[in-house]
């Protein structure tokens, strides 16, 4: 539904040039919710605003619903833009207009008749759960209600694509959940394709089918959540399923295994114990009901060094369970077997590389992420 190819954008001014987009490519399938995650300054807003060409990229192409927007004259572009809704962090409502007046605004601009407008506004307010608030002014609404107005307004022209610019960043956690639930519901009921930018991993966990991490104008990793979880060394997977820093346990091997999809119901620990006659301990774990799938990450301790456990590690790898040595009790450099080594040898080298695979500090990258919810 949205296809972006090699987008570049450099802001120039006062002898200074900032590369906001450094060759970004992205595909969002029809009916998908796609989250772009990144810290402030990563280029997320520039990317999102490039999708409807509110921001003109220096080069690259943007295609939405089969129409290449970057090739259109301004008048045609204005028409195509009406098929793309957008919601904003601070709602961007007109304070002098009522809820109904705000939602009706885009319909007025496109010349929809008064009667049709009134019927459509009533329908939209019901869709976002704001029946009965048509006559209220923005100042009389809570943040969550304001965002509902923003969503109703964005959907007025019956778009197939919704762009969400940090739509929940100004809201408290409970309201955030209700707005995310609404977006998810609209995605299902209307088949709405949603591209959102956020700095909150929780948003990705709750509603996204696919995600990307953006840093310095580039995607360092991207993909469908189910694929990402199966990708050894994945930074996104580590952020989705967080474990604390790994301890050093001399003479033991600490491994982090990710179980999702077909593996979620597998009696993995019993199998390991049986096949390799080893006493597997669980050191920690996290299980998440992600929008895309149920998934978990377990931190296991196997007696003996990584070398002693070679066969068990190989079996995990062959079984297709992403496995990383979190801390072998021996310096990674001494054996050459570190998380990156496992990642590379599990057949995920390409994916790990595209993820900006962590090097010698891999275990810290996986397990030692900060507590802010921001990607590293
Ligand atoms: N109009 C502009 N003129 C000059 N530089 C800009 C402009 N807009 C953005 N930038 C710069 O481009 C880079 C990317 O900005 P962008 O707003 O896209 O990032 P972001 O990830 O959305 O961050 P934030 O969440 O803080 O908005 C930043 O370094 C920013 O300072």
Automatic annotation (TrEMBL):
Residues 2-241 form the ABC transporter domain. Keywords: Amino-acid transport, ATP-binding, Cell membrane, Membrane, Nucleotide-binding, Translocase, Transport. The keyword Cell membrane applies. PANTHER family: AMINO ACID IMPORT ATP-BINDING PROTEIN, METHIONINE IMPORT ATP-BINDING PROTEIN METN. Pfam families: ABC_tran, NIL. Residues 348-370 have a biased composition (Low complexity). This is D-methionine transport system ATP-binding protein. One of its GO terms (molecular function) is ATP binding. Residues 348-376 are annotated as: Disordered. The keyword Translocase applies. Transmembrane segments: none annotated. The lineage of its organism: Bacteria, Bacillati, Actinomycetota, Actinomycetes, Micromonosporales.
């Amino acid at each position: 539904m949205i296809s972006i190819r090699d987008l570049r954008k450099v802001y120039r001014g006062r002898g200074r040039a900032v590369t906001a987009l450094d060759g970004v490519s992205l595909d969002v399938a029809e009916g998908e919710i796609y989250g772009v995650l990144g810290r402030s300054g990563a280029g997320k807003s520039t990317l999102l605003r490039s999708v409807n060409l509110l921001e003109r990229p220096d080069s690259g192409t943007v295609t939405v619903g089969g129409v290449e927007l970057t090739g259109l004259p301004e008048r045609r572009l204005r028409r195509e833009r009406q098929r793309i809704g957008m919601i904003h962090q601070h709602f961007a409502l007109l304070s002098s207009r009522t809820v109904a007046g705000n939602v009706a605004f885009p319909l007025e601009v496109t010349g929809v008749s008064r009667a049709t407008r009134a019927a459509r506004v009533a329908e939209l307010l019901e869709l976002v759960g704001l029946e009965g608030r048509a006559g209220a002014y923005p100042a009389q609404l809570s943040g969550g209600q304001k965002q509902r107005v923003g969503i109703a307004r964005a959907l007025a022209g019956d778009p197939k694509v919704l762009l969400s610019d940090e739509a929940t960043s100004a809201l408290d956690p409970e309201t955030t959940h209700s707005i995310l639930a609404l977006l998810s519901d609209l995605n299902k009921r209307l088949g709405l394709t949603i591209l959102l930018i956020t700095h909150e991993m929780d948003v990705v966990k709750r509603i996204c089918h696919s995600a990307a991490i953006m840093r310095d104008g580039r995607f360092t990793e991207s993909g469908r959540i189910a694929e990402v979880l199966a990708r050894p060394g994945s930074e996104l997977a580590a952020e989705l399923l967080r474990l604390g820093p790994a301890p050093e346990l001399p003479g033991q091997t600490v491994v982090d295994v990710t179980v999702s999809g077909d593996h979620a119901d597998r009696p993995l620990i019993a199998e390991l114990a049986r096949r390799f006659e080893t006493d597997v301990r669980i050191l920690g774990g996290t299980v998440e009901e992600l929008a895309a799938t149920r998934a978990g990450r377990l931190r296991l301790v196997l007696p003996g060094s990584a070398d002693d456990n070679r066969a068990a590690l190989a079996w995990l790898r062959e079984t297709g369970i992403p496995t990383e040595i979190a801390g072998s009790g021996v310096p990674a450099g001494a054996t050459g077997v570190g998380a990156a080594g496992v990642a590379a040898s599990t057949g995920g080298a390409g994916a790990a590389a595209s993820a900006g695979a962590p090097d010698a500090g891999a275990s810290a990258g996986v397990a030692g992420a900060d507590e802010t919810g921001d990607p590293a």
